[in-house]
Amino acid sequence: MYMVFDIGGTFVKYAILDRSGNIFIQGKFPTPQQSLDELLLEMFSTIERYEEYEVKGISICCPGVVDSYQGVVYYGGCLTYLHEVNLKQKFIEKFKLPVSIENDGKAAALAELWRGGVNQSKHAVILVLGSAIGGGIVIDGKLHRGQHFSAGEVSYMVGDPTDQPGIFKMCGFDACAPKMINDIAEANGLSPDTDGRIVFEYIKKENAASWSIFTEYCHKIAKMIVSLQYILDPERFIICGGISTQSLVCEQIMKEVEQIYKKNPMYLLMPVIENSTLNNDANLYGALYHFFEEYIEKADEYAEHNAILCPNCSTELIQSEQKAV
């Protein structure tokens, strides 16, 4: 059994899975917003609560640029306290188990490669619509991490100008799901902490204010997709993230793309946009896949780094897993 965490801006989701990706335990808790110590306390206690499952490894995905060799997180998206934290080291020191760390967008891409709609595609872009916009790029059937582990960080694409000369918004933080939901809640006199599923009941064409906010959100994502289509030329885009369970999201993004093409006839390569079939579990599956990738498929590549961090916890796992595969 393996304990997997998906650290998001709003919730930390966790699950216990076997090597085939079957989920046995699943839950979540609110993401601590103030300090790393609070986050670690919650995650450590979650692992300890399920010690009867005899977890053999821990895998984590989180926002930010992640050095998946060393286990260090940079910037951490909206969770700024993750900057320059070696999460891998902290969990190894605590539990003396193999640990892997991956960026959440890349985890979603790995999940789609393993269990989703990308396993038959050579080139694809995965977009995770959440507190920012996570991204994963698949080239020639493999996840592309880039020279500095930042490939797919679509949130940092240059967006609309701000009121300050020369200062631009970053696309992924300007077009984030919580902001859209909060704006719609405010427009309808709802509490800021209203469940997003309730807010979606207000997104109707006859509700002009809500519909305008929603379509503007979809339009911003559509612009990103059009740019990425011409930069990367993928076979398909896969939309993931909690908000993607609302079928209206993918449908409206596609309509916004079509409007861009209609008004700009120089664009000819129409993107193929699909909803993920993995829904909210994508990052959990992908984080686990990365664990196997690190400790089994690419064990030699990671060996030097793992030997430094956890000299006694890699060999036994690798040998037992290779026998089981």
UniProtKB/TrEMBL annotation:
<dbReference type="Pfam" id="PF00480">
    <property type="entry name" value="ROK"/>
</dbReference>
<comment type="similarity">
    <text>Belongs to the ROK (NagC/XylR) family.</text>
</comment>
<dbReference type="InterPro" id="IPR043129">
    <property type="entry name" value="ATPase_NBD"/>
</dbReference>
<protein>
    <recommendedName>
        <fullName>ROK family protein</fullName>
    </recommendedName>
</protein>
<dbReference type="InterPro" id="IPR000600">
    <property type="entry name" value="ROK"/>
</dbReference>
